[in-house]
Amino acid sequence: MFDLQEFLPYRLYQAAEHTSQLFSDAYRQRYGINRTQWRVLFNVGQFGPLTAGEVSDRTGLEKSKVSRAVVRLESLGWLLRKPDDQDRRRQGLTLTAAGEEAFQDLRAQAEIFQNQLISQVGEQEVAALVAALRVVDQVVTASPHQTGSPSGSGSGDRVATLSPEPDPKHR
To answer: What's the predicted TM-score (pTM) here?
Structure first.
């Protein structure tokens, strides 16, 4: 019998949502920014300069949400938009000195949060979870056109057909 509490997508979402909510206190209380703004700040801080489209691709956030976050971070004086020299329609996003300062402060808070979580869960459990999540990510992001055998071909390819079977009642 199907048990929602054991359904992997549900469990992943619940764990991610709960841990994100706990950590969000750090950036909401310190800087008054929301989760989307934090994600934009951290991606530009970690990987920038990036375009808004690249931030959207990296985070899975809708472009409109990224755009609103960029406007808010600009209003705080944390982010600059610079037109691309080759394509003036594209704008690179970079952190200002104030944005870099906020990023470094929040990165330190993220490290503290991560270390507290590891101390409560256990280093081996977290390492195993991270490894398992990498495998899940590889499986679900694999091209549906790839083929391979997860059942021992020795190739190491993991392939999933992750589309549910069509329900004959709904055809």
So the answer is: 0.77
